[in-house]
Specification:
By secondary structure, the protein is an all-alpha fold. It contains 13 helices and no strands. Helices cover 50% and strands 0% of the residues. The protein binds fe (ii) ion (FE2). Fe (ii) ion (FE2) binds next to α8.
């Protein structure tokens, strides 16, 4: 197989990144590159070739010119500090984080409690890493650092998004008709999650995320992290080693966000 040397070096993060790699890692990376190249050649020969050179559900830190759906802007990836905090991730990996900031701002202005405000602030940050099943991924990402109620609410907000609740003024999002089609029926696991959450004592915590979510897509909204710094301080257990360095069950997820250019 002919290897395009330039694209292989670029795929590994450039010549500087390669210098820091061991020869075993480099050999592994070469093998991965060849397998991928082979797969792409096979796809190219099939008739079903997509226009987009990446999967739709890829996290926005992996798409250099933005996420492809307009939610996040272009990614300028700055190095993380040695012991990164949640605020560092907001500044350097989740930015501009406009949607979650708008969502949390609405929760704050409408007098919701601090756990709900924090849940709104964190409910979609995992979209930087992964989009499918983002409620589950998003809850997992923060689970060791927040109350059970906050991660529970984030896990179930995804399923609740598909089901209206007129008691709090939540309607099925028009955007979903465009994304999924008018006749879309949520997958069985989403329906099951909704049924479970609907009858749970914390239902309203997840439901309020969806309520604020609905009003948090204003392209002209001016948002700031300032009102949330103290709330994070009170409700997010920041590990002293830094997120990604604390050997928690989810540390690898934060490390991947910190270093999405690593080849392995
Ligand atoms: Fe969401």
């Amino acid at each position: 197989m002919n290897i395009d040397r330039r694209s292989f070096i670029a795929a590994l993060g450039g010549a500087v990144a390669i210098e820091t790699m061991s020869s075993e890692a480099l050999a592994d990376a070469l093998e991965h590159h060849m397998i991928e190249h082979l797969d792409q050649t096979a796809i190219g020969q099939s008739s079903e070739r997509t226009q987009r050179p990446y999967r739709r559900g890829i996290g926005s830190v992996f798409v250099l010119s933005g996420s492809g759906d307009g939610v996040f802007g272009a990614n300028k990836l700055e190095p993380m500090p040695p012991n990164p905090t949640l605020l560092d991730f907001f500044n350097l990996r989740f930015a501009p984080a406009n949607h979650v900031l708008q969502s949390a701002t609405r929760a704050l202005k409408t007098g919701m409690n601090e756990e709900t405000i924090l849940a709104c602030l964190l409910h979609d940050v995992v979209l930087s890493l992964m989009k499918p099943d983002h409620g589950w991924w998003g809850a997992q990402l923060i689970e060791p650092y927040v109350s059970e109620r906050v991660s529970w609410a984030i896990r179930y907000h995804q399923a609740l998004r598909f089901y209206p609740d007129t008691s709090v003024g939540y309607e099925y999002p028009e955007m979903y008709n465009r994304l999924f089609g008018k006749d879309y029926v949520p997958a069985p696991h989403v329906k099951a999650a909704y049924t479970y959450a609907r009858n749970h004592k914390w239902y309203m915590n997840a439901r309020l995320i969806t309520v604020n979510d609905l009003y948090a897509f204003d392209p002209n909204a001016k948002v700031s992290m300032d009102p949330f710094v103290d709330i994070i301080g009170r409700h997010f257990k920041q590990p002293k080693e830094g997120l990604g360095n604390d050997n928690s069950p989810v540390a690898h997820m934060w490390r991947t966000l910190a270093n999405p250019d690593l080849p392995l």
